[in-house]
Specification:
heterotrimer; A alpha+beta (about 160); B mainly alpha (about 260); C mainly alpha (about 425); A: alpha+beta; three-stranded antiparallel sheet; about 20% helix; C: about 425 residues; mainly alpha; Cytochrome Bc1 Complex, Chain C; 2 domains; two-stranded antiparallel ribbon; 17 helices; 2 strands; about 65% helix; globular; Cyt_c-like_dom (chain B); heme (chain B); Cyt_c1 (chain B)
């Protein structure tokens, strides 16, 4: 009796799982290639947005003052403490996923005319989160810093994200 | 007792009616408020209709000025019959545009003059081409623009007539223009309407305000071409329901006549 | 039950033949014909029937919309505009469906208010109430997924914000969100499954509505006095009395509905949803549809993400246990002088939340939301349990017929009840 029941339960699980699993990302979605970004056209102080896995990725060529501001901030002032050094591979290049960690909006701050918030990084217009020049959350409802995607420098002027 | 009961009933049903008025309209809640002047369009209000002459003049403004950058993808040339143009006029107008068709028997794509059934021609192949040609800004499609902005037609009229000198201390970024009614006041679209920019066939003086009104009328029609049919049907529907409601209420009174309450 | 043909009382021979084998006509006669219904309903009791009719309207219009809608990110917006322009009466069907969602929520909010005010959630109707809350939850899920389908800016960003709520749950959150999306952001797989589920859910709702009505016909209806009918003098057969009365309410409802559809079809919508969805541009101000605003305000009232999500779900979940939170044996607020005002204050808090939910997340709206949220929960979790013990209710009338017939007898109770009816 018990054995039969257990067997049947396994059978039900085996039948249900394919349906649940079918809702997870399909193979073509998973196979999305990594994105390569050419850094040469990005002047100091400028930023570009590239699309990676359907999400915007911010690549910012930081000025010396911006790096300085990010490094001078003591960790005690941060909601999600992380040093600027741990978030970049080369000082002047900041690469972060441009999705607010609160509820997934795209923060402003990529265009020179955008509001950049109180910490000169990015400002999320949805619920008012402010990010600094290292993409760290400083003010507002977002719980975490802007995520740093996996990326690597394939040469001095090119990175590959993913 | 009966009065009290009817009062409660009226309150309950009145609540349905008034809720819409009490609710915070998201459109009104959004962003910093810039008061948009009311242009007193004839199609505003519950029984308004589109001025065909103004819509046709607006089409001319769109065709000669706006369409260089802005598409109206959801419209086809045949739709223009609805603003009072004759079939020959529309055919002639469509014929001035070429569209890509094909493949033909030999598998080649070819160009031909547009027909009534074709969509309005798009000024750019895609968004990136549009941005590349416009200093990074994307001229949006205007098909439903009058529905896609709060207070649509009035806003469009205000925007087109709202190019003024920036107030002291306001710095306008490179390639941007100051506009009194654009959210944030910096717009990438240059002040494109100038007096006598177009020559109206019906002799109307082409002032900036006149052209803005005409093109706003045209865009309001384009966004909701069903408006006039909808309102006419609504009047009939509501009159019918009021009569039906009266009859139903009489039946209800009769049914309840023998119940003490 | 005895096996064999049903002993039918239907006269028509054809109907009788059917009824003997499947007694649907006997059932209809019993449940909607002679069904004993309290004689003292006010017009608040129309709203259950109105909700049922609205569900049918939504299903009917939805089926016809689906015949012309394309659930693909590249075509969804265009196919909706095609419905508006080229499909015969497409604009009518879409505007009825679009505004029907708002009307559905207005009706259901009033229906729920009726239940709260007259204590319809109390024994023996607890399960009836719980089924109602289940319907409300399913409605919210259906409306949310339906709003995504036109694939405008608010569709896309609303979907992004709401699905991201699940990421607040520790450990499994991210996996849940990826699973919901079928990818790494709201995209074509998401739109496709939302369409599939949006089509399915109304039929699930219809199923739960059937259970809701079945449960109602076991316990019988509550009434404005909140006391049980004591005999035939307290009730009327459902037909023709309440069929006639519901019809009057229905026509008035249709007039309001028609006014919205024909004269201000986009009033309750957001202009941004006529901008095609763009994953790289966030609208300056994301607001959900008006009927979600109170819950959205509760979400934003909490500085902590997980806390906000839990509180928002909690604001509905608390309704499930309401029958056991309200310890007073008196159902109708007409006889509860203190609780009545506490409930009116709750209604004000609800409207304040609705208003604050449409405002940006900044002061003073955040503080106002917090106060209103605190009262929303305090009413259920503190005030009702305490008032059940502390409040002295007014004396109840002896029967439903008593204050109506106003015979000589003990009118004291009836007299006490009278001023309350003005509320």
């Amino acid at each position: 009796m018990l054995t039969t029941g257990a067997f049947a339960a396994v059978g039900v699980g085996a039948v249900v799982w394919p349906f649940i699993s079918s809702m997870n990302p399909a193979r073509d979605v998973l196979a999305l290639a990594s994105t390569e970004v050419d850094l040469t056209p990005i002047a100091v102080g400028q930023a570009v947005t590239v699309v990676w896995r359907g999400k915007p990725v911010f690549v910012r060529h930081r000025t010396a003052e911006e790096i300085q501001a990010a490094r001078a901030t003591p960790l005690s002032q941060l909601k999600d403490p992380a040093t600027d050094q741990s978030r970049v591979q080369r000082d002047q290049w900041l690469v972060v996923v441009g999705v607010c960690t609160h509820l997934g909006c795209v923060p402003l701050g990529q265009k020179p005319t955008d509001a950049r918030g109180e910490y000169q990084g990015w400002f999320c217009p949805c619920h008012g989160s402010h990010y600094d020049t290292s993409g760290r959350i400083r003010l507002g409802p977002a719980p975490l810093n802007l995520a740093v995607p996996e990326y690597s420098f394939t040469s001095d002027t090119q990175i590959r994200i993913g | 007792m009966r009065a009290v009961r009817n009062l409660i009933g009226a309150l309950a049903l009145g609540a349905v009616a008034s809720l819409g008025a009490v609710l915070p309209s998201p459109a009104r809640a959004a962003g910093e408020a810039i008061a948009i002047p009311d242009a007193n369009f004839g199609f505003a209000g519950f029984f308004g209709t589109f001025d065909r002459g103004a819509a046709q003049r607006g089409l001319q403004v769109y065709k000669e000025v706006c369409s260089a950058c802005h598409g109206m993808y959801h419209l086809s040339y045949r739709n223009l019959l609805e603003i009072g143009l004759s079939e020959d006029q529309v055919r002639a107008l469509a014929g001035t545009f070429t569209v890509m068709d094909g493949p033909n028997d030999t598998g080649e794509m070819f160009e031909r003059p547009a027909r009534l059934s074709d969509r309005f021609r798009r000024p750019f192949a895609n968004e990136l081409a549009a941005r590349a040609a416009n200093n990074g800004a994307y001229p949006p499609d205007l098909s439903v623009m009058a529905k896609a902005r709060p207070n649509g037609a009035n806003y469009l009229h205000a925007l087109l007539t709202g190019y003024v000198d920036p107030p002291a201390g306001f710095t306008v970024a490179d390639g941007m223009y100051y506009n009194a009614y654009y959210p944030g006041h910096q717009i990438a679209m240059p002040p494109i309407l100038n007096p006598d920019q177009v020559t109206y066939a019906d002799g109307t003086a082409a002032t900036v305000d006149q052209m803005a009104r005409d093109v706003a009328t045209f865009l309001a029609w384009a966004a909701e071409p069903e408006t006039e049919q909808r309102r006419a049907m609504g009047v009939k529907m509501i009159l019918f329901l009021i009569v039906l409601g009266g009859l139903t209420y009489a039946v209800k009174r009769k049914v309840w006549a023998d119940v003490k309450h | 039950m005895a096996i064999g043909l049903h002993d039918s009382t239907i006269k028509n021979p054809v109907l009788r033949w059917v009824d003997q084998r499947l007694p649907v006509f006997t059932m209809m006669q019993k449940e909607y014909g002679t069904f004993p219904t309290p004689r003292n309903f006010n017009y608040f009791w129309n709203f259950g029937a109105l909700a049922m009719v609205t569900l049918m309207i939504m299903i009917a219009t939805g089926i016809f919309l689906a015949m012309n809608y394309t659930p693909h990110t590249s075509y969804a917006f265009d196919s909706v505009e095609r419905i508006m322009r080229d499909v015969n009466y497409g604009w009518l069907i879409r505007y009825v469906h679009m505004n029907g969602a708002s009307m559905f929520f207005i009706v259901v909010f009033i229906h729920i208010w009726r239940g709260l005010y007259y204590g319809s959630y109390k024994a023996p109707r607890e399960l009836l109430w719980i089924l109602g809350v289940v319907i409300f939850l399913l409605m919210m899920a259906t409306a949310f997924m339906g709003y995504v389908l036109p694939w405008g800016q608010m569709s896309f960003w609303g979907a992004t914000v709401i699905t991201n709520l699940f990421s607040a749950f520790p450990l499994v959150g991210e996996h849940i969100v990826t699973w919901l999306w079928g990818g790494f952001s709201v995209d074509n797989p998401t739109l496709n499954r939302f369409f599939s589920l949006h089509y399915l859910m109304p039929f699930v709702i219809a199923g739960v509505v059937f259970l809701h009505v079945a449960a109602l016909h076991i316990t019988g209806s509550n009434n404005p006095l909140g006391i049980d009918p004591k005999g035939p003098q307290d009730t009327l057969p459902f037909h023709p009395y309440y069929t006639a009365k519901d019809s009057v309410g229905l026509i008035v409802y249709f007039i309001v509905f028609a006014f919205l559809v024909f004269f201000m079809p986009n009033y309750l919508g957001h202009p941004d949803n006529y901008i095609p969805a763009n994953p790289l541009v966030t609208p300056a101000h994301i607001v959900p549809e008006w009927y979600f605003l109170p819950f959205y305000a509760i979400l934003r009232a909490v500085p902590d993400k997980l806390g906000g999500v839990l509180l928002m779900f909690g604001s509905i979940a608390v309704l499930f246990i309401l029958p056991w939170l309200d310890t007073s044996p008196v159902r109708s607020m007409r006889f509860r002088p203190v609780a009545k005002w506490a409930l009116f204050l709750w209604l004000i808090a609800f409207f304040v939340l609705m208003w604050a939910g449409g405002k940006p997340a900044e002061e003073p709206y955040v503080t106002i939301s917090r106060i209103a949220t605190a009262y929303y929960f305090a009413y259920f979790l503190v005030i009702l349990p305490l008032l059940g013990r502390l409040e002295r209710p007014l004396s109840l009338p002896e029967s439903i017929a008593m204050p109506v017939l106003r015979g000589g007898g003990p009118v004291m109770a009836g007299a006490a009840a009278k001023p309350m009816e003005k509320a």
